[in-house]
Design brief:
250 residues, alpha/beta, Rossmann fold, 7 strands, binds NADP nicotinamide-adenine-dinucleotide phosphate
Length: 250
Amino acid sequence: MNGLAGKVALVTGASRGIGAAIAVRLAAEGATVAVNYYPGFEADAQDVVGRIESAGGRAAAFAADVTDSAACVRMVDEVVSSLGSLDVLVNNAGITRDGLMVRMSDEDWAAVISTNLTGVFFCTRAAAKVMMKARTGAIVNIASVVGIGGNAGQANYSAAKAGVIGLTKTTAREFASRGMRCNAVAPGFIETDMTAKLPEAVREGLKGQIAMGRLGSADDVASCVAFLASDDASYVTGQVLAIDGGMTFA
Ligand code: NAP
């Protein structure tokens, strides 16, 4: 893969799951990786940094709650001052608070919109100011297939992910003239802590809807993100790539 060596990549919510796999993959491709973690949970992030360093890569951990606008600006400033630049942003941090709509609380609606959509806006705006000046940059947003097709029990999550897809396209349009690209991936069901809570019967039912007959792995997502973040995707912007083993065929 071309074009990640020597670059600095910030991955939000990189202390575990898909974010950790993306951080490890970007580092393996030669990027120096800023591993973002939710304040107070540094140990997991330092584990990811340790894994990258023991494989010969470069990484450092940075605390910020992506729902805190000022903290996102501070984090971007810290990344640039300690690692030298910011060339790639992966907006990965996300949560679920599932429930049928009539029973969904205002708090569960707001928490998911705030983390999964507003957090993407806060980090993108902060990073874009740096990338615009450098006249280069690649942003990859982690959306979801449910942001395209909806999902019963996920009104908050599907609305946030659909919002991420709209935000991806607007970011691509606003910043293309500044040498920046922005794309999204839409994972299907991926084996992480987020899906570990699904009952076995639901998991089996899901496999029946997936042409490849299995859930995805975090590494399946990480390799596609690395491609979109790299110069190999230099003429790709505003796109949404489904990573779902053949669950949707839009
Ligand atoms: P996960 O295992 O639950 O990990 C989520 C990560 O986000 C954790 O590192 C978490 O930090 C971090 N995070 C949560 N809120 C944050 C905040 N306010 N500020 C900073 N970091 C925060 O989830 P995952 O399955 O890897 O999901 C990663 C992304 O992929 C999410 O955007 C998710 O919506 C998306 N996705 C997942 C699937 C799937 O099937 N798993 C499918 C489609 C899309 P803590 O460790 O401190 O909680």
